[in-house]
Amino acid sequence: MARRITILLLAVLLIAALTTLPFFLKAFHIRVGLSIFLSAGFAVCWWLLAGFTAYYSFGHTAFVGIGAFAAALALRAVPEAAPALQLAWSLGAGLVVAGGIAAIIAWPILRLRGHYFTIAMLAVALVLGEAVAAFPVFGGSTGLALPNLAPMGVRVEAFFYWIALALLAIVMAVAWVISRSRLGYGLAAIREDEDAAQMLGVPTTRFKVVAFVLSGGLIGLIGAVYALNLGYITSDSVFRGSLSLEMIVNSLVGGMGSILGPVIGAAVMTGVTKLVLADLLEYHLAITGVLIVAVVLVAPDGLVGLWRRRRAQSAGR
Amino acid sequence: MTTTDLLSVQGLAAGYGGALAVRGLDFAVAPGTIAVLVGANGAGKTTTVQVIAGAIRPSGGTIRFDGETVTGLDCPAMVDRGITLVPEGRLIFARMTVEENLLMGALNRRAAANLARNLDRVFALFPRLAQRRGQLGGSMSGGEQQMLAIARGLMAEPRLMILDEPSLGLAPKVVAETFGLIRQLNAEGITILLVEQNVRQSLQLADRAFVIEKGRVVLSGAGPTLLDDPFVKTAFLGL
């Protein structure tokens, strides 16, 4: 009990510290923080499905794209509304449309298991990206512009920094609540052995659909913020294979066994690429690749797994 | 077939992608008894119990449980009604601890409410599992894993427990222990449906036994009586 209070206190302090940080940082560093929160948010949502159920999606950028375009199109419908309302309206559109489309594709796609699911999600992302690029409603290949919704007097990067931080806190809270619920235990049973889970009376289909819709919907929510921050989106910029890849890599680097894994992985990978490798553009991808290989070799359970193992070893001594 | 049967199966047909493994199968289990399905490999025993547990949809026939038609319901619905299958090969969660495995057995709503009580009851019944509650399921011996699979099934508070080949791959001494345990569970009021290739021992246990061949019941009767049947003797006991 005391330990739980300590953790809660630490979390509140950390959030407070992160909230005040933009007042002391340069615009560039605020943007780095913003990137970390966005990719951590995406990774946590991806992990919400993959970490609990071992259904590894290679196409979760589909939901980033859906959320982004839903937000952009929703804003066209209310050009005159107050910015705060526009913000809520576009984020809501991202969440609901991405969650809705996730619900529609969930039933057929979750009948597939293992690699088949993974590849099917890859195809979903590709098809949606092509479809969006093909239809004029979505701006075709020229894309859509989004208005600047930051209030007067607030720096744009700081504004989105705070929103992304809040959303990251929300998706982490959702994942934490699930991990302690009947749903979370059922999903863990599905991950370990789906046939056994079914025999034990776990409503496997319903639980998988719920996890998939939550994962997709919340990515759509963050995808809306991603689009608003970019200010201009095309099919290529939001239906981007590398976004799917980042969610996977960040979760693996941080560790799949804990909710902190995706967050730590996103912080490390985004931090390294934006800060350390910013001046080495040509070597950027090569070094990222070496880093991933190193993590897989040294810490197959991710950084969180490595830390846990170290702690278990020192406790055993 | 009387109305007092806990489980009755009539004209059951089921299979995989057009090939019927079970066709026109009839049998019934009276409450509080031990029923046994015996038959050779591929006779349709596992398919039959998978249908009753809700894992496979039947293509024909009716299943009644406790007076209610339950044909074609899914696993969660069957578990909610009190039918629990301890599957062939045990399907233990190897990377979970003994205690976590047991919790997974209590995920249906009815059993979740009585979780603490059921856990105590199961640990009283299986002291060895209580000692090893923190051990990983996959690190236990075959016999212990079978105990765990049965214990996990008990966590769902079954009225009918179906055991598919519980003696598979176990040492003779452990097989005897397992059959003893099944008798004990039955004495506590749980109706048992047992699928076995170990014909001699399971028939000794059976209040009623059904011999299945090519997806049909070809012979039935009290277990010990069937042991003296000339067909059973030549087909299964090698006498």
From TrEMBL, chain A:
Keywords: Cell membrane, Membrane, Transmembrane, Transmembrane helix. The chain crosses the membrane at residues 6-25, 32-49, 55-75, 87-110, 116-138, 159-178, 209-228, 248-271, 283-307. CDD domains: TM_PBP1_LivM_like. GO terms for cellular component: plasma membrane. InterPro entries: ABC_transp_permease, LivM-like. It is found in: Cell membrane. One of its GO terms (molecular function) is branched-chain amino acid transmembrane transporter activity. It comes from the Bacteria. It is a multi-pass membrane protein. This is Branched-chain amino acid ABC transporter permease.
TrEMBL record, chain B:
Keywords: Amino-acid transport, ATP-binding, Nucleotide-binding, Transport. Residues 7-239 form the ABC transporter domain. One of its GO terms (molecular function) is ATP hydrolysis activity. It comes from the Bacteria. GO terms for biological process: L-amino acid transport. The keyword ATP-binding applies. InterPro entries: AAA+_ATPase (IPR003593), ABC_transporter-like_ATP-bd (IPR003439), ABC_transporter-like_CS (IPR017871), BCAA_Transport_ATP-bd_LivF (IPR052156), P-loop_NTPase (IPR027417). PROSITE patterns: ABC_TRANSPORTER_1, ABC_TRANSPORTER_2. SUPFAM superfamilies: P-loop containing nucleoside triphosphate hydrolases. Pfam families: ABC_tran (PF00005). Belongs to the ABC transporter superfamily. This is ABC transporter ATP-binding protein. The lineage of its organism: Bacteria, Pseudomonadati, Pseudomonadota, Alphaproteobacteria, Hyphomicrobiales.
